[in-house]
């Protein structure tokens, strides 16, 4: 099992939950695919229809920015914590 | 009678309502806070008016939502209403335009998007399908991208003939279909593209906004990136109607909902000086399809004025007499309840206004 932590602006898309538990593990891709199956509106806030992570969405796997550890291929172990955070951007 | 004015801004949607004949307004919002609201439609072809809103968040991407209770609640489908099919390799930047079709097709809604594409809904705006023939058009690789991105920002369904629809884009021009979107042809003859080596190309013109005359569906108006034009033949040919305006640059052009020949614009000085003409807040109106123009400023700020009005940030309502509305990049929204003769402030200090739409509801 993997825990996914959501920022405030996205919790409405998951019934108000701040953390979700998903069965998928192995890669971040697999975790996000399960999100897309179970919470499709939430998932498309994170990735576009090509499956690419949105530019100003950051995802940390056990505290590591996924973009530094393989992107969507970043390894996600059983028991990992995947944290979604909007990047510091905008005006 | 209640008049609803939907105000799309860079940081959300505001809804203004008037129940006293458009004399005073109550403003609520923001809905979709922190998202740019580029497209709003008020669809009155059903018993209960439906609001359709296209917004985009810098962080979380685009969304399209509907409301059947005038904004009290919003519905967004589980599956993305507007999405590019996998084989296109494209992804939706944002929805720029939402256009309900004519009354003959009460459940058809068109969506113009960035990147430049047209989508069609047959269920009132809940799900949309890419119009393949336009996406596959051989000209598409040569369409450019304006400063605001590459987008179909104008969709004009024919009011009576469901087979006919027109679109316009910046750095691409006007395209038309007479077979319900199965094939498309450019319609830019007479529109000058001063920014290209060949200034009279078949396509590539930078149309900022296009509007259809209330009385004659073959009569169209276009505000271009320099140049204001009219077509009397459904877009086959265009001729300048800029004489009488202080400038031929600007973004919006709005046609009266019922009075043939009446249009409004908000001229800016020039491409290289995007301030209101003469640094004054003035709407220009023509009552003779662009042959002559008159400035309208009663009730508008009378000092130096610098904010621009973007392409969809001016509209008319469907009341009689028609109301006219515009919002500025400085977040002020003005309304006229007498076709532009006089104006009053609806809301001030909003985020920059991207679009406005109004209707009696």
Helix content of chain B: under 10%
Give the count of structural domains of chain A.
1
Number of domains of chain B: 1
The low-pLDDT segments of chain B are none
The CATH class name of chain B reads Mainly Beta
Give the strand line-up of the largest sheet of chain A: 2-1-7-4-5
Description of the molecule:
The complex is a heterodimer of chains A (91) and B (361). Chain A has 91 residues and is of the alpha+beta class. Chain A has a single domain (2-86), classed as Ubiquitin-like (UB roll) (Roll). Helices cover 20% and strands 27% of the residues of chain A. Chain A has helices at 28-38, 40-46; strands at residues 2-5, 19-22, 26-27, 57-61, 64-65, 75-76, 81-86. In chain A, the strands form 2 sheets. Chain A has a 5-stranded mixed beta sheet, covered by helices on one side. A two-stranded antiparallel sheet of chain A has the order 3-6. Chain A is globular and about 35 Å long. Helices cover 1% and strands 41% of the residues of chain B. Chain B has one helix spanning 132-135; strands at residues 3-9, 12-18, 26-31, 35-43, 50-57, 61-67, 94-100, 109-114, 117-121, 129-130, 152-157, 165-169, 173-177, 185-186, 207-212, 220-224, 228-231, 239-240, 249-255, 263-270, 273-276, 283-286, 294-296, 314-316, 324-327, 333-336, 344-347, 353-360. By secondary structure, chain B is an all-beta fold. In chain B, strand 15 (207-212) and strand 16 (220-224) form a beta hairpin. In chain B, the strands form 7 sheets. In chain B, strands 19, 20, 21, 22 and 23 form a 5-stranded antiparallel beta sheet that branches. In chain B, strands 3-2-1-28 form a 4-stranded antiparallel beta sheet, with no helix packed on it. Chain B has a single domain (3-360), classed as Methylamine Dehydrogenase, Chain H, CATH 2.130.10. Chain B is globular. At the A-B interface, helix 2 of A face loops of B.
């Amino acid at each position: 099992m993997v825990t996914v932590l959501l920022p405030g602006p996205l919790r409405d898309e998951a019934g108000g939950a701040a953390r979700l538990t998903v069965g998928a593990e192995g890669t971040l891709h697999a975790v996000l695919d399960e999100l897309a199956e179970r919470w499709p509106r939430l998932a498309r806030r994170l990735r576009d229809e090509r499956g690419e992570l949105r530019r100003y969405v950051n995802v940390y796997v056990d505290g590591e920015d996924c973009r530094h550890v393989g992107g969507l291929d970043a390894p996600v172990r059983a028991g990992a914590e995947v944290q979604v955070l909007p990047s510091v951007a905008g005006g | 009678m209640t008049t609803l004015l939907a105000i799309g801004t860079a940081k959300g949607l505001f809804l203004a309502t008037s129940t006293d004949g458009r004399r005073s307004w109550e403003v609520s919002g923001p809905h979709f806070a922190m998202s740019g609201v580029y497209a709003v439609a008020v669809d009155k072809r059903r018993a209960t008016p439906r609001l359709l809103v296209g917004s985009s968040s810098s962080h979380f991407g685009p969304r399209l939502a509907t409301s059947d209770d005038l904004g009290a609640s919003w519905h967004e489908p589980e599956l993305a209403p507007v999405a590019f099919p996998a084989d296109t390799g494209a992804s939706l930047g944002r929805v720029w335009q939402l256009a309900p079709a004519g009354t003959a097709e009460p459940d058809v809604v068109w969506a113009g998007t960035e990147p430049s594409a047209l989508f069609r809904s047959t269920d009132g705006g809940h799900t949309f399908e890419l119009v393949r023939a336009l996406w596959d058009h051989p000209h598409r690789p040569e369409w450019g991208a304006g400063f605001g991105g590459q987008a179909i920002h104008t969709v004009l369904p024919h009011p009576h003939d469901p087979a006919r629809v027109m679109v316009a884009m910046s750095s691409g021009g006007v395209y038309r279909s007479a077979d319900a979107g199965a094939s498309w042809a450019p319609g830019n003859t007479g529109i000058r593209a001063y920014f290209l080596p060949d200034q009279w190309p078949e396509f590539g013109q930078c149309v900022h906004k296009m509007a259809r005359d209330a009385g004659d569906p073959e009569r169209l108006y276009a505000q271009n990136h320099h140049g204001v034009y009219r077509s009397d033949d459904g877009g086959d040919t265009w001729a300048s109607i800029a004489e009488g305006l202080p400038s031929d640059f600007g973004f919006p052009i709005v046609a009266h909902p019922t009075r043939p020949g009446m249009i409004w614009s908000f001229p800016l000085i020039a491409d290289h000086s995007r301030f209101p003409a003469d640094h004054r807040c003035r709407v220009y109106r023509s009552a003779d399809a662009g042959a002559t123009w008159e400035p309208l400023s009663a009730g508008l700020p009378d000092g130096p004025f610098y904010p621009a009005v973007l392409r969809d940030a001016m509209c008319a309502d469907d009341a009689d007499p028609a109301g006219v509305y515009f919002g500025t990049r400085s977040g002020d929204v003005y309304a006229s309840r007498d076709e532009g003769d006089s104006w009053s402030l609806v809301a001030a200090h909003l985020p920059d206004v991207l679009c406005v739409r109004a209707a009696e509801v």
